[in-house]
Amino acid sequence: MKHMTRKATRHTNQNEGLIFEKSSPGKAAWKLPPLDVPEVDTRELLGASERKHLGNMPEVSEIEIIRHFTRLSTWNYAIDLGMYPLGSCTMKYNPRVNEVVSRLDGLANGHPYQPEKVSQGALRILQTLSDCLLDITGMDAITLQPAAGAHGELTGLLMVRAYQQSKGAPRKKILIPDSAHGTNPATAAMVGYAVENLKSNARGMVDVAALTSQMNEDVAALMLTNPNTLGVFEQEIHKIADIMHAKGGLLYMDGANMNALVGKVRPGDFSVDLMHLNLHKTFSTPHGGGGPGSGPVAIKKILEPFLPTPVLIAKPDGTLGFEYNRPQSVGRVRAFYGNFGMFVRALAYTLANGPDGLRQTTEDAVLNANYIRKGLEGVYDLPYSTPTMHEVVFSDKVQAKKGVKTMDIAKRLIDYGFHPYTTAFPLIVPGALMIEPTESESKEEMDLFIEAMKSIADEVEEDPQMVLAAPHTTRVSRLDEVAAARKPVLRWKPS
Amino acid sequence: MRYLPKSPADREAMLKAIGARSIDDLFAPIPAEYRLNRDLKVPRQMAESEIVDWFRERARENGDGFATFLGAGAYYHYRPVIIDSLISRGEFLTAYTPYQAEISQGTLQSIFEFQTMICELTGMEVANASMYDGSTAAAEGVMMAARLTGRHSVAIARSVHPEYREVLATYAHHQGMPLATVSFTDNARLDLKELDKSITPDIACVLIQSPNFFGTIEDVAAIADIAHKHGAMLVVSIAEAVSLGIVEPPRQADIIAMEAQSFGVPLTFGGPYCGVIATREQYVRQMPGRLVGQTTDRNGKRGFVLTLATREQHIRREKATSNICTNQALIALMANIFMTIYGKVGLRELAKHNLAKAAYAAQQFGKHAKVLFSGAPRFNEFVVQTSEDPYAINGRILEHKIVGGLPLKKSYPELGNAALWCCTEMSTRAAIDTAVGSVAESERSVKSAKEQGDVQEVAR
Question: What is the ipTM of this complex?
Fold first, then answer.
């Protein structure tokens, strides 16, 4: 435990009950201005529809709310506190200027239905971001509407289906590598496609021979993550695309790992037909404890007629507007135009970087992952020795001999002041430790991480029980998830 | 680049440690023919001050400072300042999805409180951690009903938000789920006779919105009776969450799919907002989205975890209840703080202010033009029918830096020159009077033009 003092130390944090436990009648945190219109008789206006009581909603004062949520916040780990090496999640720095510009009055208070004449600022933001993302991806057209990555996948596969339908039949299957994110098969099912697994080869890449034999006229598309979830670039990408295209299939790219490519290589140039981006990964919009995200879908020209409505257009008079009349469109995928607030942040990030900054960002992200790989090789088992891009996947093979699994190592990492890496994913690596440092980590922070991981490996040899009982320094120890699922308590109830 | 924490010497040292000659070595796995050998065509790197200026300029082109009478699924309510103070804490803003419960208790407990308050307000037994927005929540709610009933078609009220209906059509299309539309009567409430006839044995659920798109509160009990009589479920969409402060919640529903944007979430040109699904305990295993549950740690201490994950895509893959992964956690936190601020008494008072403003405005408009659908209770929206095209009237109102009601021609051509107006606690009497004045002026000029025409006719 000699290294632990370098990064983490214990400090007091405060206990805090549920807000309902602080409530008492007569306390309030609100004040409305005097009504400047006549009061109304609610009984007369609403009749039987009038609500009589608001159940157990809390009554608390402002200072209590501030302390409540501030205390809760101190129980969280966050990027602002340190490295977040979650694979395929791209937990990078969330610049604060993004937050400032997204709150400017004219943008934060813009109503989605206000006339286009007084929406030109917002529309210009949509257009500028679209232009940037199109050059970054090398694609021809884009929709910004999808609310998150999985929603982008849904939108993308709807377009695949509409495209195939226009060629005669929607086809029946989507091919998905065994290393893929769970959202890929779940999305295919939502669009009415059967999922066919595609196995990876010994180097962790798509098995081109298997693809050749599995590809036929029943397959609508292949959903490929590139670099894949092992952090490996699909070197035979041109062959993969050719195999798909020869039999009328499309190549869909899950852009979760785009942070490895921006400014260095463009999916459009390696024959991807459509892809989604995750603005909350690659383009620095905050994860916020699980969302909001934003999942724009960029496409090649052949798919343009099928874009969801509405589509942003430049009008003859030079102003911007939306076009709703698109007969071949897949339809609308959500109300309004997407998570606009995330567009503002992603564009602010792009402007702060410029072409040189974006390229350097990608280079640093790949440099960091390779540095960690080098630092931990030999200490942890590396199941695939294929070159690493922005993330690296180890396994717990060595430590498992002592009964210590990837989740245990991850929990112990918490005691060293780090958020765990992604555990047990991708599924093709038993006991995976999936590490993506992103560009936001300094050499010092990564040296501490490597040191912590080595120290834990030593601990596994010396005192596996101690590692199995980790974390030791958190407010709560490991929680009983089985009990939580067996008898779910999903809300507070007054005792 | 100011976000990158490395000196050139650091990079050199790291490359050396790796055993690479240059950064290009690390990109060697990418076939050479695909490597980009030019700068991206994006604007040059900007200073922070330039970025702020650029967006300020865009904000000015965007109706900055205009008053608005637009609602229709996106509502302008006051946002107490502590919402942004609290959600700006890095520990909330920059945290990941709380899979690692031991270091995510802040996010987890706050979601547990959010789920609880949504249950209290909707009268349901369980609520999830959030969905993308009200429109996708409604579509997912319908698909949940289809799984629960084993039936495959849907009856949807024409008074549901037109864009929500479009989203449902998109989702339903590839599920092989036919949609039957049920019309509204002359008080804007659902046509119950037509509903009764349209529920065939294959109808999984009836989807309504209350208050509906016109602001009218539906007779949920009567609709639920009809749906249940035919073995169908009732899914109720709520787009204006503040209504829950004074309007009886749709307790008879089986599934409630709501939009919580009104609870402290800025309009932001349509998103990010906050969908939520609430339902009865017995249906929870078919519910999409994340759920937080209470449990204990090894020492018996209370704690919270993400639970019932076997419904979700990362476990079940193609057999999951939905493909949703990332949701709207930070926006749900805004709504959570808003609900905590207003609480049991404030939410009711806030809703009363909305009711009073809308009642006053409807009464004033009614003196000059026709306020439609007056036979049933409504919350903070109402429909005004004018003689002149509402786009033309709105054009003149805009000169006062006021955005008028939403013209309905595109979605409801049968209503003629009608517009949907919304008043919240933010609508001042002065702005209402100005807008009413413009409508009155329009009616007068149409009338005098008509009279002139009549005079000419008589003269002929």
Answer: 0.97
